[in-house]
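Quick start: what a row looks like.
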Amino acid sequence: MQSKATTVDQYLASLPEDRRAAISAVRNVILKNLDKDYEEGIQYGMIGYYVPHKVFPAGYHCDPKQPLPFAALASQKNHMAVYLMGVYGQPAQEQWFRDAWAKTGKKLDMGKSCVRFKKLEGVALDVVGEAIRRVPAKAFIAHYESVIRPPDKKAPGAAKSKPAAKKSAAAKKPAAGKKPAAKKPAARKRA
C-alpha cells in the first residue's frame, strides 16, 4: 500500500502507533548499518534507501529519473515488510541471509526481496542489519551493472566470434498461399 507521504517523518506519523514503533525500530537498524553513499527518503510510496544520482548518475534502469533502489521499509495492508535488493538475485547473499535467519529461531516469511512481518518480535534485527552492512554502495552498483548491462563486446581480450545465423520460426514458414517444397527422399546406398 503506497503512502502519499513525501517525507520519512510524514510516513511514520501516518502509521498506527504499533506499526510506527516496529517500522522505526527496523529503520534504526538499517540506518546504523547503512553505507554513507546511500540515502534515505520516500521512494515508491515507502521509506527507501537508494544510491543517489550524485553517486550513480544513470539511476534505476526501469525509471532513470529514480535513484537506484537498495532497500525499503513499508507498512502494507496485512503486514510490514523490509525489502532487501542486496539479497535479491545474489544466490550466495540469499543463502547467507536464510541461514543466518534460521539460526535465530525466528520464522522467515520471505518473497524474492521482501521479508514480511506482523510484529517487531518476528524480525531478526541483527540479520537485517548485517544484510545491509554487507553490501556497500560500490559493491551494489558493481553487481547491478553486471546484471543489467551486457558485457562490452569490444573489451580487450574478448573473444571475437560471430553468432551463427539462425532462421526464425517465421522465416522457416512458407509464404501465405504457397505450399512448402516437397522433400526428396534420400537416395539409398546399395551394399
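That is the whole record. The helical segments are 8-13, 17-33, 91-104, 125-133, 137-148, 169-172. The chain has one domain: 8-148.
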